[in-house]
TrEMBL record:
Keywords: Membrane, Signal, Transmembrane, Transmembrane helix. Residues 1-31 form the signal peptide. This is DUF916 domain-containing protein. The lineage of its organism: Bacteria, Bacillati, Actinomycetota, Actinomycetes, Micrococcales. The chain crosses the membrane at residues 300-320. It comes from the Bacteria.
Length: 351
């Protein structure tokens, strides 16, 4: 009875060990902003900013402008006040960049413009009545020593709200400035790391994760793509990552990319290869594209849950064997004692 209880308990632990891993869960639009100037709901200010011509919004989402060095041009944005009271919007221009998620943004107004943002001169502010739209002209002047290539910038309308701690809410329009000439399309790529994630259950594959960074060290915007392939060092079919969308990288910009390779079984070391390529936008200059960059690494995909399950089975076998051996030893002792008592009783009867 004792042996059965021990075996039943150990088998229960093995079942729990086998089940537990399975339970582990592994066109741009018109920019619109909103801010509250006070506690009352009717004091909330909402507004939008879009490209415009002299008569109002012209349907563009981005302002594209090509200027020779020293050339000047006038562009416009329409600032619409969607709120129920008059509002004064501060206007600013600055250099543009892409966030980690790939959305366009401007450098903070407290940071002086160094590139395309310094080409733009905007009025200090504009007053817009409730429900009304004001067209704001601004001047763009390319410096005489402008470097051929792309110079991203933006124009924004903002409102400050709050008490002693002022909060600036800003809405803007992307301005793509370009100077024609001999541009350079160039990029660098660096590997940031690779890792393996086990699947949800023992009988499910995991996934390989590769992280890399792309740096645009040229003078024209690029769209980058990658092809990632992984192959086990012990043989077996190779696995590849599905094709992803092309990522825009502005001149001087850096983007970090994470690529997941699904259906990778934990069979030891994998050789991972990522081929990073780049192309110039369709409306960009006709220049040679940068050469592809190949990144390689080795990542260990260890079957830890499987090894733990095997260890549990080994411990079960060892526990059962030890229990059976202890039971056999106890029975042998009882038999030896019974034999000894029998011989003693026989000798006593013979006397």
């Amino acid at each position: 009875m004792h042996v059965r209880s021990v075996v039943r308990g150990v088998v229960g632990l093995v079942a729990a060990a086998l089940v537990a891993p399975a339970l582990v869960i592994g066109a741009p639009a018109a920019a619109t902003g909103s801010t509250s100037a006070g506690a009352a709901a009717d004091e909330r200010i909402t507004w939008s900013v879009v490209p415009a011509d002299a008569s109002g919004p012209d349907g563009r989402h981005v302002i594209d402008l090509e200027l020779q060095p020293g050339e000047r041009a006038t562009e416009r944005v329409a600032v619409r006040n969607h709120s129920a009271r008059e509002a004064t919007f501060a206007l600013s221009a600055n250099d543009g960049y892409l966030t980690d998620r790939g959305s366009f943004d401007m450098r903070p107004s407290s940071v002086p413009a160094e590139d395309g943002g310094s080409w733009i001169t905007v009025p200090d502010d504009v007053v817009v009545g409730p429900g009304e739209t004001e067209v704001v002209p601004f001047e763009v002047v390319a410096p005489a020593d402008a470097v051929p290539g792309d110079h991203p910038a933006g124009v924004a309308a903002s409102v400050r709200s709050g008490g002693e701690l002022q909060v600036e809410s800003r809405v803007g329009v992307r301005v793509n400035l370009r100077t024609p000439g001999e541009v350079v399309a160039s990029m660098k790529a660096e590997l940031l790391g690779t890792s393996f994630t086990q699947g949800a259950g023992l009988l499910e594959p995991g996934e390989l994760v590769l992280r890399y960074a792309v740096v645009n060290d040229g003078t024209v915007a690029l769209h980058t793509t990658s092809q990632v392939r992984a192959e086990s060092r012990f043989g077996g079919p190779a696995v590849t990552a599905p094709a992803g969308e092309a990522l825009e990288v502005l001149p001087g910009g850096r983007r970090e990319v994470t690529v997941t390779v699904p259906r990778a079984w934990p069979v030891g070391p994998f050789g991972v290869e990522a081929v990073v390529g780049a192309a110039v936008a369709e409306d960009g200059p006709d220049v040679p594209v940068p050469a592809d960059v190949t990144l390689t690494d080795t990542v260990w995909a260890l079957p830890l849950p499987h090894l733990l399950a095997l260890l549990a089975l080994v411990l079960v076998g060892w526990a059962v064997r030890r229990t059976l051996r202890a039971r056999r030893t106890r029975l042998d002792r009882l038999l030896d004692r019974a034999r000894a008592e029998g011989r003693a009783e026989a000798m006593a009867s013979a006397r």
